[in-house]
């Protein structure tokens, strides 16, 4: 099963957008993500509908944050992306009448629900501002006072 990296990619993009002066075009974001601008527009449309970004038309237009980073949590973005499946583990339903399968699915299902609840709770506690401050600290440690190294994307 292929990993769904949309959440981490959008968090990355939103922090870059915060540091960018003015709106950022879909083409610029697509180049950053090594994808097609249509994919960016489709994904950003969900974030726009949820009120986290806005689009600006015309010369100098593009995408911009609609809220400060401290007002957006990881859970907000996760939900705006359609709440993708968190875990790759699934339940077997080949023989739903089998009592062994029922016992296994019961235990796995309960455990997965609890784990998902904990992950979503933590996502709700972390803001994009927290991530940006972590980046700032890492950048300062890596580059030192003179800023001799360039940051990695």
Describe the protein in words.
The protein has a two-stranded antiparallel ribbon. The two termini are 26 Å apart. Helix content is 56%, strand content 5%. The chain is mainly alpha-helical and 153 residues long. The longest helix is centred in the C-terminal third of the chain and has 27 residues, at 99-125. It has a single domain (6-143), classed as Winged helix-like DNA-binding domain superfamily/Winged helix DNA-binding domain (Arc Repressor Mutant, subunit A), CATH 1.10.10.10. The protein is elongated, with a radius of gyration of 20 Å.
Write the layout of secondary structure elements.
Elements: H1 6-19, H2 26-33, H3 37-49, E1 53-56, E2 62-65, H4 74-80, H5 99-125, H6 128-143
Antiparallel strand pairs: 1-2
E-strand count: 2
- Listing every helix as H and every strand as E from the N terminus to the C terminus, the arrangement reads HHHEEHHH
Largest sheet: 2 strands, antiparallel
- What is the CATH architecture assignment? Orthogonal Bundle
**In CATH's first tier, which class applies?**
Mainly Alpha
How widely separated are the two ends? 26 Å
How many structural units, i.e. domains?
Answer: 1
The number of helices is 6
Rounded to the nearest angstrom, the radius of gyration is 20 Å
Task: Characterize the overall form.
Answer: elongated
Overall mean pLDDT stands at 90
Residues in β-strands, percent: 5-15%
CATH superfamily: Winged helix-like DNA-binding domain superfamily/Winged helix DNA-binding domain
Structural class: mainly alpha
Strand order of the largest sheet: 1-2
């Amino acid at each position: 099963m292929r990993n769904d990296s949309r959440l981490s990619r959008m968090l990355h993009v939103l922090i870059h957008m915060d540091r960018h002066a003015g709106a950022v075009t879909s083409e610029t974001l697509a180049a950053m993500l090594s994808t097609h601008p249509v994919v960016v527009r489709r994904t950003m449309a969900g974030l726009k509908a949820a009120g986290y970004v806005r689009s600006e038309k015309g010369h100098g237009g593009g995408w911009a944050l609609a809220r400060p980073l401290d007002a957006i949590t990881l859970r907000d973005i996760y939900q705006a992306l359609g709440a993708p499946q968190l875990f790759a583990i699934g339940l077997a339903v080949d023989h739903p009448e089998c009592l062994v399968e029922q016992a296994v699915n019961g235990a796995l299902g309960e455990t997965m629900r609890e784990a998902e609840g904990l992950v979503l709770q933590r996502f709700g506690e972390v803001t994009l501002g927290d991530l940006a401050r972590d980046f700032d600290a890492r950048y300062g440690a890596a580059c030192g006072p003179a800023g001799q190294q360039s940051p990695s994307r």
